[in-house]
Amino acid sequence: MDIEDGGAKLIDVARLANCSPATVSRVLNGNPNVNEVVRDRVVRAARDLGYVPNGSARALRSTRTRLVGAIIPTLDHAIYATMVDGLQARLSEKDVSLIINTSGYDIDHEYEQARLLVERGVESVVLVGSTHRPATLAMFEQKRINYVYTYTSKATEAGAAVGFDNEKAGRTAARYLLDLGHTKFAMIAGITQDNDRAAGRRDGFLNELERSGIDQGMVPVVEGAYRLDDGRTCMQRLMDDVRRPTAVFCGSDILAAGAIKYCHAEGIAVPKEVSVVGFDNLEIAELTSPELTTLEVPARDMGRIAADYILASPSQRLHLRQRELAIRLIVRGSTAVVRR
Amino acid sequence: MDIEDGGAKLIDVARLANCSPATVSRVLNGNPNVNEVVRDRVVRAARDLGYVPNGSARALRSTRTRLVGAIIPTLDHAIYATMVDGLQARLSEKDVSLIINTSGYDIDHEYEQARLLVERGVESVVLVGSTHRPATLAMFEQKRINYVYTYTSKATEAGAAVGFDNEKAGRTAARYLLDLGHTKFAMIAGITQDNDRAAGRRDGFLNELERSGIDQGMVPVVEGAYRLDDGRTCMQRLMDDVRRPTAVFCGSDILAAGAIKYCHAEGIAVPKEVSVVGFDNLEIAELTSPELTTLEVPARDMGRIAADYILASPSQRLHLRQRELAIRLIVRGSTAVVRR
DNA sequence: CGCCTTTGTGAAATCGTTTTCACGCCTTTT
DNA sequence: AAAAGGCGTGAAAACGATTTCACAAAGGCG
Lengths: 340, 340
Known about the structure:
Two copies of one chain form a homodimer. By secondary structure, chain A is an alpha/beta fold.
C-alpha cells in the first residue's frame, strides 16, 4: 500500500486532507455542498500527492465512462481522418475520450470492433454510412448505446445522422454536367458493395441523367477502390471504349486525380476532351492540373456536429437527431462546356 | 436487476450455466483448468444471454485495461493518420483499444491530453517526436506507463523509439542536391518551435551543406505550417530574394507541393530553374507536376512496429527499445542537375 | 493401501471509486 | 419555543468483475 507505487488513491487524499473519502469524491466531482475550507484542503492534498483518479473504478461505480467509440473504414483517407480530427477535438474539450477502430469497409469486421467498443463501455458510437449488420445495431440498442451515422443524412428510429444526401450530391453533379451541354457520361464510382454512400452517389447521378432522357444503360459505371491507381485504370477502361464519354463523375477526388493523371499521360486534354468532376474537395483537388471541379464534403464539421450530438443531453438530442449538411459544388478547371 | 436492462452480467451467466462466477471468469479468460463439459455450458450460456463483459470492472480488479493512448499533433495530415491507421490495425488484432488525442503541436495541450489518458488507465502511450513537457513523461513514469516515441529514432532511458533519424534524412537531401551540382540552396522547414523533427531535418540539411563549404548564413530558411498555402508563400519569399536558390528542400510534401504550385503560377520552371525536394512521400507527391522527388517516411510501418513494441512482453521490449527505420530517397521529376 | 499431488470447483475478499443514507448542527418558520 | 428544513459530513454499501484460498475428488506412487 505504498503511495509511491503507482500513485496515491482517493483514500490517501482523504487522509491527508483529514476528511472522509466521500468528501474528497464530492470535491473532485464539483459537488457544491462542501465547505470552502475543506475543499481547499482536498484540492491541495490531491495536488501534493499527484493524485489521478482511477477511471475504471469511477466508471464501474457511476456507470459513466466518458468514452466514445468511432468505427470508420480507414484513417488512410483524408475524408475520414479529417472528420475524426474534428470529432476528437470537440469531444476532448469536454474531457471525453475517443476510441477509434477501423473496419476496412467490411461490416463483419465492423461488428467485431463494435463488440470490443461495447465491452469498453463506450456511451456513444460514431458510424460511417448506414449499411451495418443488424446485429451490430441490436447490440448497441440492447446496451443502450447511442449511435450516430455520418456521411449520410438518413437517420433511423434508433440512430441519429449527421451528414449529407449522397443521392442529391450525385444529382447535383449530373445537373451541372448536363448544363454544360454534355450528353456522353460515365462514372467512376467507389466500391458500392456494402457502401450506401458510394451507391447513393451513383444512383443520384444516374437518376438525374435519366430525368433528362439519358438511359442508364448508356452510362458506363466502373468501380474502383479509393486509390490513385484505381482512378487511373478505371479511366483507361472508360476511354478505351468506342463510345468515349465527354464527362466523367468520380466518387472521390482520389479517383478523379488518378483519372486526370491517366489523361495527362495519354495526351487526352482535360477539360477540352473530357470534363472530370470529383467528390470530397480534399487538398489534392488543388494539385491536379487542371485543378479539380468537385463537391465539397464538410468532413470536419461533420465530426464536430456529431460530437455536439453526442455531448447533448438526451432531451436536447431529440432536436438534433437528423442533421443534413450542405454539399457545395466547387467549380475549378477540370470541367468545361462540351465542345461541338 | 432485470437481465434485459442493459444486458446480462457474469453472475447471470453463472446461474444459467449452473456454476460459480469464478468458473465463468475462468472460462472467459481461457484458464485451462476447467472441465470441458462445464466450459461448453458456460460458453453457450454467455452466447444465449448476449453477455458482454464489463471492461471497467475487469480493469479495476485485474489492473489490466488493454487500452493504449496515442497523442499526435493532428489527424489532418496523412503522415500521422497513416501511422495511426497502422498502429490501430495491429493493436486491434490483439483486442487492444486505442484512444487518440491530438495536441495541435502544443506540448502544454499535450500534457492535458496525457493526463486524461492516464486517468483512463492506458497501459502504453505513443508520442510523436521527443519534445515533451518533463511533467508529461514524469507522470507516465510515476504511473508505470510505458511510452514510445515515433518519427524519431532517439530512445531515452524511459522511452522507447520507433522512427528514423531526421538529421540523417536532412543530410541525405543535401547530399543529393549537392551531387546534382547545386550551390545555391534554401529550405522551407516546418515550424521548428517545440518540434525536434522539423528542427532535425533543417539541422541535418544545413550541416551537410556546411561540410561541403557552404556557409549556413548563405542558406535562407523559412518556416511554414503544413499547408499548401504556406508552401506557396514561403516559396514566394525565397524566389523574390535577389539571390534565388536553385535547390529548395522542403520539410514536407505539402510544403513542396505548395512551392511547386507557386512556381507554376509564376512561370518558374521546375526543375529547370529550381529543383524541389519534399519529405514524406505522400500520395500527393505523384500529383504535382512534375512529380515530386522526396524522402519516403514509412508511416504505416512505424505505427505497426510501435504496436509490436507495445504488445511485446516486458522482457522482449528490452530488445525492441530503439528501432531505426530507413528513409529512402525517391527520385522523381522535380529535381535536376543544375544548369550552368 | 495410505500419502501426496493434481485437477476442478466455489466462497469470499478485493480493486477504487460513487452513492445512499443518516446524523448533527444551525437557521428559518409557525 | 417547538417543528421543519437546509447544510456539511461520514459510514457503509455498491458497482461487476478477478483472484486468492480452501477443499473435495481423482490419480500416481512407494
